[in-house]
Amino acid sequence: MSLKVKEAAALIGVSIRTLHHYNEIGLLMPETVNAAGHRLYSDRELERLQQILFFRELGFSLEEIKNILDRPDFDRYRALVVHRDLLLQKKRRLEEIIETVDRTIQFAAGGMPMNAHEMFEGFTGGNFTKQKKKYTAGGYEHTLAIKADGTAWGWGNFGEGSGGAVAAPVQLLSDVKMVAGASGHYHSFAVRSDGTVWGWGSNSHGQLGSGGKDREYVEKPIPVAGIDAVEAVSAGVFHALALRTDRSVWSWGQNWYGQLGDGTTAQRSEPAMVSGMTDVLEVAAGFFHSMALKADGTVWRWGGFGDSTPAFPILNESLAPVRLDALAHIAFIAAGGSHGVALQDDGSVWTWGYNNEGQLGDGTVMNGSSPEPRKVPGLTNVAAIAAGGAFTLALRTDGTVWSWGANSFGELGDGTNERRSVPAPIGKLADVVHIAAGTKHAMAMTKDGRFWVWGSNDHGQLGERDVEARNRPHEPYRA
């Protein structure tokens, strides 16, 4: 089928002038021009035009679209899959805004209370960067991803030793709410659409919250006992945190160093509420420490820093939440293995805890731990943060990713294996919208939906079978 420009414009619902402009800039050329001077568009051009309109719907500029479509490796099927995922995210944003409108109508009519945070939930929830905990997470030797269709996928070692490692992604759970997925040491969690939490992997210390540790390893996801209406979840080595929609924090698992925040060191295999943690917006779990960000911009911590080995003993223990007085106006938090990271609303980054690999980013390296936050110098306009075992990532508003800290396995993505105590950009990455970190590996997603990984791959956590590690970002999957 061949259509004249007027026919094509009428069919698609765009103006003739628009098609002329696409032709002038080389974005969409007609298949041929007939003897009468009419430009003719075949099915191939119509398919390209459909792709252009999909990209435009997602906010891409014409220049960006042309660069993507003209790539030698452009895959239409893959692009359509990505389009669907991104459009589902837009749909969820509209649903969240509509829900906020409905609640506001009830509030205006005097039918229900509404606080300041709830007034803007629909708007903040729609920002892709602000939803950084929803999509991917890294554990010790495995990776977890949640797709926009609500399915959870994982690869790497989930806790059965090297024999249990899988390099190719496997589907783990469906009907997952796009709120949170978390990976711990050898276990993972996801929040389903009904607000329940489901976990799988190692259960050696009751960290799956099933009410006991009758099974050391759980292959299929099981529900966490006694908790619902959950919005987010985060996992440490042997403990977990959950944030409920009422803004309360719940914890379970091993409690050697007070990481459950209940004032004791007693292990607990079922969730219980952390006293004093109300009006919380975000939770984060490190190896043996925990963090919470309150709506007033304050940050609280409990547990201890270190990995419980002679080289890195647990320091700065607290059995109950304590406020970090140096921090205010904080927008987001991240927990590294033995360090903490906070993003202030002015785009600056603050760090504290162990600094044995330069993960605090202040230009120094020391073997001990400092519980006092310090500002990372020379780093501005940051939109998102992520923390690995002993390294840190920052995503700036210009779409660049900056890294610092440990680099023995290529965690910094800079093409070397040398640690660095100051932030520097990862050269290969641009137009990034999402970052995540595991213990020794990291992930990024770019604006066009491409997924990049780097760091350790000793158990397939990069999604490859025969590569031990990569010190530069690599694209393992094309779908």
TrEMBL record:
<dbReference type="InterPro" id="IPR009061">
    <property type="entry name" value="DNA-bd_dom_put_sf"/>
</dbReference>
<dbReference type="InterPro" id="IPR000408">
    <property type="entry name" value="Reg_chr_condens"/>
</dbReference>
<dbReference type="InterPro" id="IPR058923">
    <property type="entry name" value="RCC1-like_dom"/>
</dbReference>
<dbReference type="Pfam" id="PF25390">
    <property type="entry name" value="WD40_RLD"/>
</dbReference>
<dbReference type="InterPro" id="IPR009091">
    <property type="entry name" value="RCC1/BLIP-II"/>
</dbReference>
<keyword id="KW-0677">Repeat</keyword>
<dbReference type="Pfam" id="PF13540">
    <property type="entry name" value="RCC1_2"/>
</dbReference>
<dbReference type="GO" id="GO:0003677">
    <property type="term" value="F:DNA binding"/>
</dbReference>
<protein>
    <submittedName>
        <fullName>MerR family transcriptional regulator</fullName>
    </submittedName>
</protein>
<feature type="domain" description="HTH merR-type">
    <location>
        <begin position="1"/>
        <end position="71"/>
    </location>
</feature>
<dbReference type="GO" id="GO:0006355">
    <property type="term" value="P:regulation of DNA-templated transcription"/>
</dbReference>
<dbReference type="Pfam" id="PF13411">
    <property type="entry name" value="MerR_1"/>
</dbReference>
<dbReference type="GO" id="GO:0005737">
    <property type="term" value="C:cytoplasm"/>
</dbReference>
<dbReference type="Pfam" id="PF00415">
    <property type="entry name" value="RCC1"/>
</dbReference>
<dbReference type="InterPro" id="IPR000551">
    <property type="entry name" value="MerR-type_HTH_dom"/>
</dbReference>
<dbReference type="InterPro" id="IPR051709">
    <property type="entry name" value="Ub-ligase/GTPase-reg"/>
</dbReference>
